[in-house]
Design goal:
By secondary structure, this protein is an alpha+beta fold. It is built from 11 helices and 13 strands. The chain folds into 2 domains: 30-136, Alpha Horseshoe (Serine Threonine Protein Phosphatase 5, Tetratricopeptide repeat); 151-280, Acid Proteases (Cathepsin D, subunit A, domain 1), CATH 2.40.70.
């Protein structure tokens, strides 16, 4: 009886001690907390936390890489380059910062540096290139050596581009490589100027491979190519292009080429919907 009483007393004393530890939650580390914010799309708040970590620990590769990633997502290209170069210095063998640095130069139309940044990266098998930056085709980038991509040349400060029609998408007439006028549609969601495969062959445009993507809601195979110039009053020299096997909707009267947001970001655009035209500066 005395032994049983001692055991019962020990249980009464020890049981309350076990309870507080069972429900306690471990506080996430600063980097885990920042990563959670990043995954939730809270890029500004995540960036603030990563910056504090990088200030306290200048050699923290994960925080520095994420600061470069957030800057690139925000199109703050100078900041992105600085952070990504620091990440590369910390881990020269890692490919993610090299790929994102190449994207920085790509967006700056500095194709030679973009290609150089990818040195040692197997672009055809790199998951980041395939999933997020498929336009980083090394052969295409290298083909622009000695050229200025998207160089704008023309008379005056303004040119006007008439819309052939505006519904469901704006259609315009342009010339590619000095050829006959052809019809393009303007696609603000496109990442490159696109030519269909047959038209690219007619022009003799060099081709640099292919990739898989989603176009107009469906999956299709797309290639990479480079056009010498595209003109519509002004000349835009050394424009890259993609060739695709996916034709747009029949309502577009088969204008199987498109001008994209990358093409038109080199202009200051002033739309005149009532006159069905676009003014470019």
């Amino acid at each position: 009886m005395k032994s049983a009483g001692i055991c019962l007393a020990l249980l009464v004393v020890l049981a309350p001690c076990a309870c507080p530890g069972q429900g306690a939650e471990q506080k996430p580390s600063p980097i885990d907390s920042a990563d959670q914010l990043f995954r939730a799309g809270e890029f500004a708040r995540a960036g603030e936390q990563y910056a504090r970590i990088a200030a306290d620990r200048p050699g923290d590769y994960s925080a520095i890489l994420q600061l470069g990633r957030i800057a690139l997502l925000s199109n703050r290209l100078d900041d992105a380059r600085n952070w990504l170069e620091r990440a590369i210095a910390l881990r020269p063998g890692d490919t993610d910062p090299k790929v994102m640095l190449a994207e920085v130069y790509y967006r700056r139309d500095d194709f030679e540096r973009a290609a150089a940044a990818l040195n040692g990266v197997d672009v055809s098998a790199n998951p980041l290139v395939i999933s997020q930056y498929p336009t980083l085709n090394v052969a295409k980038l290298q083909s622009f050596k000695g050229q200025t991509p998207y160089e704008v040349r023309g008379d005056g400060q303004t040119t006007r581009l008439k819309f052939l029609r505006t519904d469901p998408l704006p259609l315009v007439s342009v010339r590619v490589n000095g050829g006959d006028e052809v019809t393009f549609f303007i696609d603000t969601g496109g990442s490159e100027v696109a030519l269909d495969t047959e038209f690219a062959r007619e022009l003799g445009v060099p081709q640099f491979g292919a990739m898989q993507g989603t176009f107009s809601g469906g999956a299709a195979r797309r290639g990479s190519a480079g056009a010498d110039r595209i003109s519509h009053g002004w000349r835009l020299g050394g424009a890259e292009s993609a060739r695709g096997d996916a034709a747009p909707a029949p309502a577009l009267a088969r204008p199987r080429r498109k001008a994209d947001r990358r093409y038109y970001r080199h202009y200051a655009l002033l739309p005149f919907p009532c006159d069905a035209r676009l003014s470019a500066r």
